[in-house]
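Summary for the funding panel

The consortium committed to producing paired sequence-structure records for every protein in the target list. Below we show the first two records in order, beginning with the earlier of the two.
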Amino acid sequence: MSMESIYNPVRTDFEQVNALIHEQLTSHVPLVEHIGHYIVDSGGKRLRPLLVLLSAGALDYRGEQHAKLAAVIEFLHTATLLHDDVVDTSELRRGRTTANARWGNAPSVLVGDFLYSRSFQMMVEMGSMRVMELLSDATAVIAEGEVLQLVNSRNPDLSEEQYMTVIHNKTAMLFQAASHSAGVLAEADPDTETALRNYGCHLGLAFQIVDDVLDYQGDPAEMGKNVGDDLAEGKATLPLIHAMATGTAEQRTLIRKAIREGGLDNLAAILEAVQATGALEYSLDRAREHAHKARSSLEKLPPSPHRDAMSSLINLAVDRAS
């Protein structure tokens, strides 16, 4: 199933979400609108709001709040992107200049704050305390994940377990919140709620692990960033962690030095090391394990085109590295 066909079960709802996103970006301060529209219109697939719509549709939700919930999730995600790019001093995202590189760090941070605030205004309008509780908890976990990644920057001693905690908090948490909150909105039974929560969590973990693999073998035109960007920032991701654990003493020393110092001076040698140690395939196997868990969670949902699309989304998340 192509990405286009995955959107088909919720195409009308998705158009409503896009309209709502642009409507809610309205501000009396023109720079807020300029930066907000720049980032939300930058070509992302909007996977997280898509999860809200597909999950709600899989439960045959008949209300009118799912589009607003999807827009809330997108605003939360966009806010994290604006803040991430400032923290990482990134200059390229989705193939375009980042907002901080174009307008500066201060406007990017403040517009990120605006998007967080607007998302909570929209949650209040929805009138569901459970949704607000779930999403406020999720934003706190995501913030902790950002801080955890920051304090572990240029740390070659990061363990695989610590890495998994970082990517769960920083990335998978919003996937999890998207599908879980849709279940809450649809008043699903506890088992179904848990299934949707687990689906989003394991999909998000698989997605991030594959992203980290692509940093060492991806196509910059497709990724919207350059190969080796994570290494340049001193991030110890799963391919490097495994390569250090299984490689030669020389390879381990090389990778540890690169993580500590950042930069790309030894990129070619490190690319060779992650290939030679099987680190990329090991990482992909871990991603496939989480993909399998995500797919198993879908068995709790009744058969529907929405569930089929959710299953296909798992395949596309992992197959990007094929």
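The next record, for a separate protein in the list, is shown here:
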Amino acid sequence: MSQDDAAVIVDVRGPDGPYRVTARYLVGCDGARSRVRDGAGIPFLGTTYPEVNRLAQFTLPDTVTVLANGDLDVPGSGTIRAGFTRTDRGLFGLGTSPASKVVSLYTTEDEGIEYDDDTPMTVTELQDSIRRVLGADLPLEEPLRLSRFTFKARQAERYRDGRILLAGDAAHLFPATGVALNAGMLDAVNLAWKLAADIHGWAPAGLLDTYHDERSLAGARTMLHTQAQVALRRGYDPAAEALRQVFQELLVDEQPLHRMGALVAGTDIRYPMPGSHHHPSAGTFAADLTLHTDQGTTSVAELMRTARPIFLDLADRPELRETADDWGQRVEVHTAKTDDRPVDALLIRPDAHIAWAATTDEPADSAVPALREALSGWFGTP
């Protein structure tokens, strides 16, 4: 890879031989071992945890019985309980379906062995891990899936280097399952419209730089709660058990449950907004309000399907609509009513974050200049 002020040049070796590509930008969405990140010289510092995780799906032999509650009756080993079983050697997970002889299996244990990711996991390797963690032999038949992975906590030092950008696992690795999917998709929708604005020539100065500012902030937030999960899951002594029990009790209460749900979903982020005197909702995800229009009932989510900026007038404010109309080639202008109106109007970016909001009955002499500033700051010169 090489880049200058105008383009990125990439030399590629593929199945049909070497070739060269020239593009305005290069986005590395090429995973944990990103060649784009390494080629750009972007540090990817962090920690690799000693846990080895094994995940598999198998059919069971006829000698093993799936009980009504999901447990397994295994000759010679007795009952193996469904769900998660923690021992002083690790964690074993079992998921079953009474209607099927297919089971999902999971083990995690600390190991000093370094496995080559290019070497596939074997049935014997999984059975040995089950025996070490659970102290029982589990006969297995046909493997449908075999996977081995470790947990890492790493984040790219920067998500942009000139005309080279990173997204997804190339930009961050989190030490817990599932959240990387949310984070990667949110990277993509944040970056896509900003790249489009630049390529189409209407991006205001510094728009593309906000990709790193916003998504690196979000990545750090995701790293916070996934590393907290490490602390919750890795301890095997009585103090760790007490921590897990207290945490589970907290999640029975509605407010902590909502807080944790937003953390895991990545929806608790408030991006920093340029300018001053912001509404408290600016920088947050737009709520999916039910909207009543002349054409019928719709919602914020339905309006967002065009992947364009949305100006939403909720209080019949013609002076605000006229201001937004100056950006009509880029911004969709909508008028609607909603129950329990939270604000008079909203300016929503294509990634569903609020760029500006007018408080209820906010005077025009303050709302109009602030709206114009937000429109120019995010969507360029009208």
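Regarding this second record: The first helix runs from residue 35 to 39. DSSP finds nine helices and 21 strands in the chain.
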